[in-house]
Design goal:
- The chain is α+β, with helices and mostly antiparallel strands and 654 residues long.
- It folds into 4 domains: 15-235, Heat Shock Protein 90, CATH 3.30.565.10; 242-375, Ribosomal Protein S5, domain 2, CATH 3.30.230.80; 410-506, Rossmann fold; 518-651, Up-down Bundle (Four Helix Bundle (Hemerythrin (Met), subunit A)).
- The chain is built from 20 helices and 22 strands.
- It has a 9-stranded mixed sheet with strand order 1-6-5-4-7-3-2-8-9, with helices on one face. Strands 10-11-14-12-13 form a 5-stranded mixed sheet, with helices on both faces. Strands 15-17-16-19-18 form a 5-stranded mixed sheet.
- Helix 19 (607-623) crosses helix 20 (630-651).
- The structure holds adenosine-5'-diphosphate and magnesium ion (MG).
- Magnesium ion (MG) binds next to helix 2.
Length: 654
């Protein structure tokens, strides 16, 4: 690489785009470039210390682990220097000339989406919209940290001398952030070890030459960096590790500040739990509940976990042994003296100390949530709305299942307010004498749940039904099995006589019709056979329903073994897009069926009978959540409308 070292090299295309946005269109919160550089310096020191703890020896062993910031008001430069592990020439080019591809693509797509409608050019248009966008959010989310330096600098030189290996030659990476960079050997570098970032500040960024300004930015964003940060020889981050302080001495502002500093979240946390434990294991922990939902099921699937410290030394970011998955929404810190400093990351898995801490954290967190649910319902419900999707996975935790079930919240048919939630205990209190089952229905939303034909019997009896809107809920219900001896059951699974012991609270919407004579019943059975013949293989059977009050028909599973939502879920998992073959149950007392009976009696081969049977099936399929052939459905109902309009005009003599 030596020969071509001085040749300017081109940034990758996506880096250029990111740079253009950062340099030209993000004006809010520019100060966070400093946080990014300090956190990179701190990471480099962390890595160095980690390797030292494991027995490797760096060059200049006696050099203190620290970060120093200095300004030159004449040259208008700002320099951030660390004594961390440094970078080789190759690493300079690789780390600073490229960008994690996934991150940058997401970044660009997101910006484009945010600007949609304002400009055709999307991300390439620089003078609009994203001026208001907060740089801290974007940079935090997409990990394009280093490049934020070009928000304030017109030129940047990164000099680095690696701490390990034989070739501890220093190199300097230089760029104006416009498209190219160079990497060359720097023989004169007085840097003993680590990295020094020198920024030639833009004219409008000279505020960062002021000591007080730098100090306030560092206190705001980098107060808890675990290495000393000096500005002109005075240390700025003198705050202690908050988790080791006695609880009574810490203010809410300190907790909030700490949370924002470590998570880069722009919002205060919803809640904090501070734990200090001596037995069965010694540790301090700060557990924050963020005030926004996590993308746990999406891109950030593996970004959860707590920062693990051993005697104040950071061992691992995002350690996942400390928490069960259902508490993955928590952010924070665990610091223990029961782990050796030089523990390897591999042996952290299956580690007894971590397992014990995990158990204590779970117990304390559950108690904390129980208390919150009792003392501050509004805050608890906010927690549930943000993190319930993850917390629900606790149905898997056999030991704590009862407590977790009690903490779950549901929408239900008894709630007139769509946002209102109920606990299982409150449901039990409202239930009539003799009920021993939590009834539920899984539907995409409240309206669909309400219209579900299976709901009719329950409405008539005044029985409450839990309304579940997420496919995973079916697994949750299945997994819970029982709560306080009550079963969980889908309304579809209610046996014909399951509700007989409860009296009617409401009358069906249709006027009651005269019962059919024995002979008519016989004809009705023949009508059902005819309907089966018309529908052919699309249904397994057509039979009389005992569950319907207002609807004409409903589809049910043939063997009653699986609810339709569970079946849908399994079909999605198997990538099976065929229609399920079900039983069509019809309401013998519904006016529609009574008229079909009359038509059948007059002429069993009437084409309108076939047509209407098809339409009835289509409608039931729709209510069951399947719409396979919308064209055919539209065509059929169009034909029906045409006929109905003609008859209407005829009958009304219009
Ligand atoms: P991130 O920190 O999220 O990885 P950055 O853009 O901030 O992304 O930095 C890119 C990479 O450059 C880092 O991952 C690291 O490898 C390297 N780097 C940046 N600053 C330093 C530094 N002061 N010392 C050593 N390596 C650094
Ligand atoms: Mg970084």
């Amino acid at each position: 690489m030596a020969e071509e070292a001085n040749q300017p090299r081109q940034f990758r295309a996506e880096v250029c785009k990111v740079l253009r946005i950062l340099t030209n269109s993000l004006y809010t919160n520019r100060e966070i470039f400093l946080r990014e550089l300090i956190s990179n310096a701190s990471d480099a020191l962390d890595k160095l210390r980690y390797r030292m703890n494991r027995g490797e020896s760096p060059c200049e062993t006696d050099l203190p682990l620290e970060i120093r910031i200095s300004m030159d008001k004449v040259a208008k430069t700002l320099t951030i220097t660390d004594t961390g592990q440094g970078m080789t020439a190759e690493e300079l080019a690789e780390n600073l000339g490229t960008i994690a591809k996934s991150g940058s693509e997401e970044f660009l797509a997101d910006l484009a989406a945010a600007k949609d409608g304002d400009t055709q050019e999307g991300v390439d248009s620089e003078d609009n919209q994203s001026k208001g966008e907060d740089a801290a959010n974007i940079i935090g989310r997409f990990g394009v940290g280093f490049y934020s330096v070009f928000m304030v600098g017109s030129k940047v030189a990164v000099t680095s001398r690696p701490a390990f290996g034989d070739a501890t030659q220093a190199h300097v990476w230089t760029s104006d952030g416009l498209g190219t960079y160079t990497v060359e050997p720097d023989g004169a570098a007085d840097l003993k070890r680590g990295t020094s970032v020198k920024i030639w500040l833009k004219d409008d960024a000279s505020e960062f030459l002021e000591k007080y300004r730098l100090e306030s930015v560092i206190r705001k964003h980098s107060a808890f960096v675990p290495f000393p940060v000096f500005v002109d020889d005075s240390q700025v981050n003198t705050q202690p590790a908050l988790w080791r302080e006695p609880k009574f001495s810490i203010t809410q502002e300190q907790y909030n500040g700490f949370y924002k500093a470590v998570t880069y979240d722009a919002k205060d946390p919803l809640d904090v739990l501070h734990i200090s434990s001596d037995a069965p294991v010694q540790f301090h922990a700060l557990l924050f509940t963020p005030d926004n939902a996590q993308e746990f099921f999406g891109a950030e699937r593996d970004a959860w976990g707590l920062d693990l410290y051993a005697s104040r030394v950071l061992i691992q970011h995002h350690n996942q042994e400390l928490l069960p998955e259902y508490l993955a929404f928590l952010k924070g810190v665990v610091d223990t003296e029961d782990l050796p400093l030089n523990i390897s990351r591999e042996t952290l898995q299956e580690n007894m100390v971590l397992r014990k801490i995990n158990q204590v954290l779970v117990k304390q967190m559950l108690s904390h949530l129980e208390k919150l649910a009792k003392d501050d319902t509004a805050k608890y419900e906010q927690f549930w709305k943000l993190h319930g999707r993850i917390f629900k996975l606790g149905y898997n935790d056999f030991t704590n299942r009862e407590r977790i079930s009690a903490l779950m919240r549901f929408n239900s048919s008894a709630m007139t307010d769509a946002e209102a939630l109920t606990s299982l205990d409150a449901y039990m209190e409202r239930a009539p004498q003799g009920q021993k089952t939590f009834w539920y229905v899984v539907a995409p939303n409240r309206e669909a749940a309400r219209l579900n034909p299976h709901m009719e019997r329950f409405r008539r009896k005044g029985l409450e039904v839990l309304w579940l809107y997420e496919p995973v809920d079916e697994f949750v219900m299945d997994g819970l099995g029982k709560y306080k001896d009550w079963e969980f059951k889908s309304v579809e699974m209610a046996a014909d006589d399951a509700l007989d012991s409860f009296s009617d609270k409401e009358q069906p919407a249709h006027e009651s019709v005269a019962p059919l004579s024995d002979e008519e019943r016989g004809t009705f059975d023949k009508l059902l056979e005819k309907m089966k013949e018309i529908l052919g293989d699309k249904v397994k059977e057509v039979r009389v329903s005992h569950r319907l009050a207002d609807s004409a028909a409903v589809l049910v599973s043939p063997d009653g073994s699986m609810s339709s939502s569970m079946e849908k879920l399994l079909k999605v998992m198997r990538k099976d897009d065929t229609l399920p073959v079900k039983v069509l149950e019809v309401n013998r007392d519904h006016p529609l069926l009574r008229n079909l009976l009359r038509m059948y009696q007059a002429n069993a081969e009437d084409s309108m009978l076939a047509h209407m049977t098809q339409c009835l099936f289509d409608a039931s399929l729709l209510l069951d959540g399947y719409l396979k052939d919308p064209q055919e459905l539209a065509q059929r109902s169009g034909k029906l409308l045409e006929n109905a309009a003609a008859w209407y005009a005829e009958v009304k003599k219009l």
